[in-house]
Amino acid sequence: VQLQASGGGLVQAGGSLRLSCAASGRTFSGHVMSWFRQAPGKQRELVAGITSGGSAQYADSVEGRFTISRHNAKNTVDLQSNSLKPEDTAVYYCAASRSTRVLRNPALYEYWGQGTLVTVSS
Fold first, then answer.
1. Sign, CA torsion 66/15/94/77
2. Measured distance CA(9)–CA(52) in Å, rounded
3. In Å, how far are 73, 95, 116 from 92, measured between CA atoms?
C-alpha cells in the first residue's frame, strides 16, 4: 500500500500549484483523504480533507484559496492551491484514514505519502 505525492515546487507569492496524491496497492474510495503540511519547527497540521462522499473541510488559513478533490476511479486526490503565500511553505503530505469524517489529528491516519516540498517566495 503506497501513497505517492507529487506536484510541489518553488513558486512566487500569488502563484498556484496543484498537488496530486496517487494511491496504489488498495482502493481508498471508502477512506477519508487529507492533505497535511509541516513547516520547519512546527507541528504537522491539517490543510484539507475530503470524505468518501465528497464533503470537504479546510483549515481556516487556506479556506477560499485551496480546493481538494478526489477521483475514486483513479484512486487519486488533488489539492489545487491558489494565491499562495510565503507562510504556505512546508512539506505537504497526503494521508488516508478509515474514518467517516475528516480528522485533524495526524495520529489517526493509517496511511501516509512521502511528502512533497512547496516553497513560496516573497
1. positive
2. 28
3. 23, 10, 5
| Average pLDDT of the residues in 32-52 | 97
Cell, residue 72: 475514486
Amino acid letter, 19: L
What is the rounded CA–CA span in Å between residue 35 and residue 107? 13
Q: Kindly report, residue by residue over 20-39, the tens digit of the pLDDT.
A: 999 988 888 899 999 999 99
Residue 26 or 77, more confident? 77
- Rounded to 5 degrees, what angle do the CA atoms 81, 4, 60 make? 30
For 82, phi then psi, to 5°, come to -115, 165
Beta strands in 7-89 (DSSP E): 9-12, 17-24, 32-38, 45-50, 56-58, 66-71, 76-81
